[in-house]
Fold:
Amino acid sequence: MSSLGINSKVQFDLHWRGTLCDYVTAIAWSPQGKILAASSAAGEVVLYSSLEKQIVKSLQPSDGQSVDCLVFSRDGEFLAAAGQNGQVKIWRLQSEEPELIRILENDRSWVDRMAWSPTKNQLAFCCGRYVQVWNADRGDIEITLNFHTSSVQDITWHPNGESLAVAGYQEVKIWMVENWDDEPCLLPVDSASLVICWSPDGKYIVSANMDSCVVKRGLGMGC
Structure:
């Protein structure tokens, strides 16, 4: 924190406070840092302005079903929200009035993992044992990936956007975007992989597992 000029004696000023109908389940900053999105266990999705310090738009009123994921696209043009009811809702935010452009229905699937590609308008989200990738430029589902062995625990894009890693029971699977139909690279796990992430340079992938292990692998080692 010293690089920010912060020490233990510095006090933080309260800029504003917002209140939702139920406990907050997810928050996300837009890439430009001008908008903060928040959702609740009651199903609300609201946008706060970091400049105006107030709610600028209620995208979705409370419907009693939790919204658990909020993710902005790489350029801030799109915001996706999903949760208990299985719907993935996508808004376009570039205009003055946010526009709901798509609702993706996933019956009986609680969607709790989503990730936008860091390089393209591709949104990956989990549906039980499956991961679907929605292409915002084409407006359709680009691919449905079957994890087979369990429900999907986590998903993450490679920093260059060329692959998608999916975690679950006893393995991490990595699919190449240009060849979705090819067999994925398999990284074995002794228990279940719950959380995965790439290093910023994309050379390593780390898996945090149910058996208390954290495993780091490098490219060319295991694939």
Q: What stands out?
A: The CA atoms of residues 96 and 202 lie 36 Å apart. The chain has two domains: 20-112, 143-223. The mean pLDDT is 90.
